[in-house]
Amino acid sequence: MDAGTDHDAEGVETEVLLAGCAAGDRSALARIYAAEAGRMLGVAERILKRRALAEEAVQDAFVQIWRRADSFDPRLGRGRSWIYAILRNRALNILRSEARTDLVEEPDDLERPSEGDDPETMVLKLSEASALRRCLERLDTRRRAALVLAYTEGLSHGELAGRLGMPLGTVKSWIRRSLSTLKECLG
């Protein structure tokens, strides 16, 4: 069997295993894990540069593979490509969320929000000497609220738009501009 045929056999096997996952066969997921987890960890480490984050990305990817196996369509591409696309997307999402946490000088700089804390209360919990607090206070109140909610509660743009009663495009623009302003201020 030549290398091309072996690669095709792996692809067909992955597609069969994905069909098994879609049918609820946990052993199919375990076989995909056994075959791909090592390579997936290497790919995730190249993207994320940190092993702990790479392991998180691989674990999250396998959860998504299990949950979404029924959405895989072999007419649209290979099973392995689909799996690695899920991994790549998860790793990039982790990178984006890590970029948000890089804005905080000290992890304890921003206390965990208490139940019922509004964004302004959260900003006030920051030390008065904190560069982050000074920079946040320069932002418009509504933009600051959107950014603080996104960071402290992990809300997506869509969730923020719904919570604030604002159009999605506006919220995306606010977050992008506010992060840019904070980076400049903290730089």
TrEMBL record:
Superkingdom classification of source:
Bacteria
Asked if the record carries the keyword Disulfide bond, the reply is no
Q: Which of UniProt's keywords are assigned here?
A: Sigma factor, Transcription, Transcription regulation
What's the source species' lineage?
Bacteria, Pseudomonadati, Pseudomonadota, Alphaproteobacteria, Hyphomicrobiales
Q: Which family does it belong to?
A: Belongs to the sigma-70 factor family. ECF subfamily.
- Protein name listed in UniProt: RNA polymerase subunit sigma
Any one of the GO BP annotations = DNA-templated transcription initiation
Single GO molecular-function term?
Answer: sigma factor activity
| RNA polymerase sigma-70 region domain mapped to chain residues | 33-101
Q: Indicate yes or no for the key word Secreted.
A: no
Q: Which InterPro entries match?
A: RNA_pol_sigma-70-like, RNA_pol_sigma-70_dom, RNA_pol_sigma70_r2, RNA_pol_sigma70_r4_t2, RNA_pol_sigma_r2, RNA_pol_sigma_r3/r4-like, WH-like_DNA-bd_sf
Q: Where is the RNA polymerase sigma factor 70 region 4 type domain?
A: 131-182
Q: Which NCBIfam families match?
A: sigma70-ECF
